[in-house]
Amino acid sequence: MTQTNSNINARKGKHLTDGERYQIQILLKEGYSHRHIGRVLGRNHQTINNEVKRGTVTQINRVTSKGKVYTYFEDIYFADAGQASYDEQRLMSGRQPKWIQASSFIDWADKKMLGPSIDLRPEEINDRSEFGHWEIDTVIGQQTKLDPVLLTLVERQTRFEIIMKLTGKDTQSVNQAITDLKERAGDAFSQLFKSFTSDNGSEFSDLYDLLKENIAVYFAHPYASWERGTSKNQHKLIRRFLPKGCSLKDITEE
């Protein structure tokens, strides 16, 4: 008890870290109470209460039974949502997030849905019952304009992954990669690739217009990386070999 109290006092006035938010997400999923989580993290339980309220989102879930589709709503806490809400509140109150003066603020301010929402995806995509539905994303190296990036496409049912090296994280590079992919696949393209799910990164701003005649394209909500969990899990494997900050110049597609 003494140790818990001292931890709380030591952290008084300090904001939750990303790591603590992910711990909250995990512990909530395992069924622990807010008070217990507070003791584990050395935080006042009211801090946990406020964070859970801030980071809780409502998910729409669909279940098919006997030919009928049933829709229900579920409130779930996500660490990413908590962090995004916290950053937005700081911005609105005039207190700048740490990255506010970085160029990434431009991307943040320009966030918008670039096409049909992920909420419109049919059940065969959400439940992974059909092959051909892919998540598309990019993996960066040194975060410089001159450093190449990786374009990743992960098939949701099989987790099969295609990795393509791009000259940069920009619309033109992505468009060229997709065009090359269409040429390689030929007439089988629309059978192998039935849909793409993307984030709202500026590099994907032409994705919907580029593919709408061939396949469906959906966009996740801003700050909702969990909606593309398949690709994010695959990225963890890539990071084992290509940690953040390393140059991708010498990496080949082979």
From TrEMBL:
One of its GO terms (cellular component) is cytosol. GO terms for molecular function: nucleic acid binding; transposase activity. The keyword Cell division does not apply. InterPro entries: Integrase_cat-core, IS30-like_HTH, RNaseH-like_sf, RNaseH_sf, Transposase-Integrase, Transposase_IS30-like. The keyword Cell cycle does not apply. GO terms for biological process: DNA integration; DNA recombination; transposition. Residues 118-254 form the Integrase catalytic domain. Keywords: DNA recombination. It holds the Pfam family HTH_38. This is Integrase catalytic domain-containing protein. It comes from Falseniella ignava CCUG 37419. The lineage of its organism: Bacteria, Bacillati, Bacillota, Bacilli, Lactobacillales.
